[in-house]
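Write out structure tokens for Riboflavin biosynthesis protein RibD.
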Amino acid sequence: MTTSDRVVCDLTISADGYAAGLDQTEDRPFGDDGGNGWGDRLHAWYENASENRAELDRMTGAGAYIMGRNMFGPLRGAWDRPWNGWWGDDPPYHAPVFVLTHHAREPLEMEGGTTFHFVTDGIESALARAQAAAGNSHVAVQGGATTVNQYLAAGHVDELRLHVVPLTLGAGTRLFEGVGQLDLEQVSSRAATQVTHVTYRVRG
């Protein structure tokens, strides 16, 4: 396998496996948290850059990225009008990003080298386009959990990097839902203040 054929996935999840809650909207990117603020807590470890520098650098080290429509923008509202997603003027990717969606849209060029491409013909097409764009680097599937599950079920993920936050959500979008059995080899684990980083190689 060449580097450009390699597919990795980074995903932050709760201890019970959820990556987002129910009813994501433009105002609530992580869904309804019942006023408990768990959406912010789930990703608070990003703010501790000094302690988590290696993991953060790996998350933005791909040659191309794939994400689901809901990770770019919520299911309702954002697609009824021109909207540039949740990522601001200078998204952290600085590379091509292929967004899985049923809604066609022209590519969206952002500052810093990020261009969002909207793919309407499925996960295989998005992967082929991302691998072609990645050059000599790898492709990263960034989420959300539904998109990651699709690529896991199809056997396309080589390395799974999970960032497990010590809280439970009880409902929402869950990793491994409908994926079936996987043979995972633990490559590394590291406990930080707000999160435990675990890397698995997906075998078979």
